[in-house]
Amino acid sequence: MDSLLGINSEWINTHDNEHDTVGLSALVTEFTPHLNSLSNINHQANSKSRGNQELGTERSRQSHYIAWCNKQNVKDPVGSNTAYKELVGCYLQDVIRGVNFTNQQTVRSQTVKGYANAVNELFRLRNKPLPYILGDKLNYSHTAIANLADEETIAVQRSPLDDTIAAVCVKLGQDAPPNSAHSLLANITCIARYVGPRLSEYGQQTQDKITYHTWNSGNKVVRSWILQDFLFFDRQKGRINLRGRTNEPIQRIYSEICYMTLTWRIQKNRRNGQSIKIPTDSAHIDICPVHHALQIVLRKFRIDSSNLDTPVCVFTKDNSTDPLYLTGNKVKEFLKKAVKIARPNITQDELKKFSAHSLRVWACVLLDQAGKSPSYIQQRLRWQGDSYRLYLRDTIHSSQAHCNALAKDSNNIISAISTSAEGTIDESNPYTINDMD
To answer: Which of the ends of the chain has fewer CB neighbours closer than 10 A, N or C?
Structure first.
């Protein structure tokens, strides 16, 4: 039987489907949020009445996929064309971003895998090639799920920096030669405090080779920041030209700057070309992100001026003038060195939790501790959905806030304990001895 949307009932798993309730769900999910909510309730009630929650969830996801295809003007949600692999991959990306049956803005990789398996079942029932292939690194659906799983794993395992570790990072940079890796890494640390960069945005896979992003057209572009991504402006919003100024005192140049813009030409969230403004922080110049960005640019002019369209984050080794690039291992070594100085008694297991991704975790934690809204964190740290919540940590700051929230109740309990110890009980106090037993 065809539904009003032209969706054939054979596309849905119809085991015990006497009343074709799933076909109805594919219809109502096209309507208002109110009907969408009623549809959720309908599915839950139907699933419970059959005593099979898992089957009900699978049907809900299947009908959601069919409705999604209809919205994308896909004539047949199931077929043999290899393009269906990419189509289902696109669908799962939408599921991750909150377009799912339960309207959850944050979903885990296992949940997304459940959607993929439910869609696979539709293809299996019609004897079509499965669009989701577990373990196939070239499969769109597998890639979407694997990337989300990696993000979850990283969020769980990586620890953020704290003020003491950050101070050590800055000091290591100040004590190092200006063209050294330590000096560059101190710059990155202070910028990371504000923008929480991913490693791919400032580093390469190897020290002597550039990592490129390849567009569908086959054209290649440098994936990480280049010189043109760092622009500096004066108080009249005029752009400041830094070419040929490497011999000037850096403080003189810094005094001219009001703010800078930092641009991401390539991003994981696909918002390529996004820019944010960063004002100078002259009251804290040693950790001002604009001051450290200025150091990065001047270093690029000093040691790699003939290749200004290549990565801007470069350094040299002792007795060498060849520009080198940061790698994940280089960042990890630097951070671990700082952590061991700041926490000499740290265990090896705890030390392993620090890596390049700790910088991004740190930036997220700082904004959350400052009480910034989710939309602010998403915008400043460039998150597509609510996945940033995975990065929040049980820091001493959040623990103290929890303690402060319970302060009034703690005082009441202490008062009740004191009263009972004196042998008298204030009957007006809601806490009685029986209550505390």
So the answer is: C
